[in-house]
């Protein structure tokens, strides 16, 4: 691309940035989750032999090769946080049962020990999740031979009032209460994250002062939905658009359904100036324009108080997040995962973890490498 082309691309990028700023203003309440996740340690868990990752209270972006463990990292953080959020004065014995059940429901292994690092002989996985403002982390372990047995070593003495939310690659707004009935009454292969999130989507919108706060926060998202609001009726979700009427969620474009899920979760208070959002590949099935809207929505949500965790393959959404999060009072943590390809068996190779506060400082970004390789092939035609 020549200098003129680069300048034209720059003008388009700036125009797009101004367009996004029109929807997402720069006035934010500097709220945050009561106890943001500050650190994850994991040894011999899944593809991770021994990792220690410091996390941002605002935005955490996980990138890496296929099968490097991006989704597993998000699911692990979600599982521990969800158990603690739902816990009500649980004992260690109770936590042992609840953590085992959650890992089983979220990861769906044939038995719990399958989540340990593949190795000869018996081994043991250990996980630690540290929360800001709480002295004791959640630390638990289980053996490679475990069916449903977990041993909790330590756990936070304080409650986690903020709700964790896990959004899978598929949108869930087109599902309704019938999905909950199916999940609870039949044996299915759906991950428990689907049930958890559909259940949260069923929570009605807030009223009163907190409802007004939610309406203020949700305005930029509604603008992207042509002023629409999301509501549930008869177990189904609809988008109400001024002057147009009600449109079934199943008839919306997927990008709009994904944004509508965020609208619903803010309106109900789940992600109102707090909460933990784990989103696995938000770019799935979206065109670049929708990816851009989602990226700016994530930044807006993080600046409004939610702690965000995103796993992505998209270089486009990575650059949008990078360009939109430049704020001295806003922190972003990029987590790069890559497998060591030097051995004979790449599928069982150790996953190497690198972290940085800027995307360009990561040691390796698979999406960037693929994009550069494609550009070289295009220019050499």
From TrEMBL:
Coiled coil: none annotated. Residues 1-10 have a biased composition (Basic and acidic residues). Residues 40-75 form the Rad50/SbcC-type AAA domain. Residues 209-318 form the ATPase AAA-type core domain. Residues 1-20 are annotated as: Disordered. It holds the Pfam family AAA_21. PANTHER family: ATP/GTP PHOSPHATASE (PTHR43581), EXCINUCLEASE ATPASE SUBUNIT (PTHR43581:SF2). This is AAA family ATPase. It comes from Nesterenkonia aethiopica.
